[in-house]
Design brief:
By secondary structure, this protein is mainly alpha-helical. It contains 3 helices and no strands. The longest helix is centred in the first third of the chain and has 32 residues. The N and C termini lie far apart (about 45 Å).
Length: about 70
């Protein structure tokens, strides 16, 4: 009885750890393939604010975004 409960708890813990790392891996892979913000989005955002961005400003924004990912 106690042996069965212990096996169940250990199995759940192992499954939770494997699930955590697997979901973390797939989420990082997804975000690398499909970044949440790209250069076109930054350019459109800055133009909506009334600024005409140059490539240097766009690159600076992209580096700032990558820093926080």
């Amino acid at each position: 009885m106690l042996h069965d409960i212990l096996l169940l708890v250990v199995g759940l813990l192992i499954g939770a750890v494997i699930g955590f790392f697997a979901s973390r891996f797939f989420m990082k892979k997804y975000l690398k393939q499909n970044p949440p913000i790209n250069e076109d989005m930054i350019k459109a955002l800055m133009m909506q604010m009334g600024r005409k961005p140059n490539q240097k400003q766009i690159n600076q924004m992209m580096k700032a975004m990558e820093k926080y990912q």
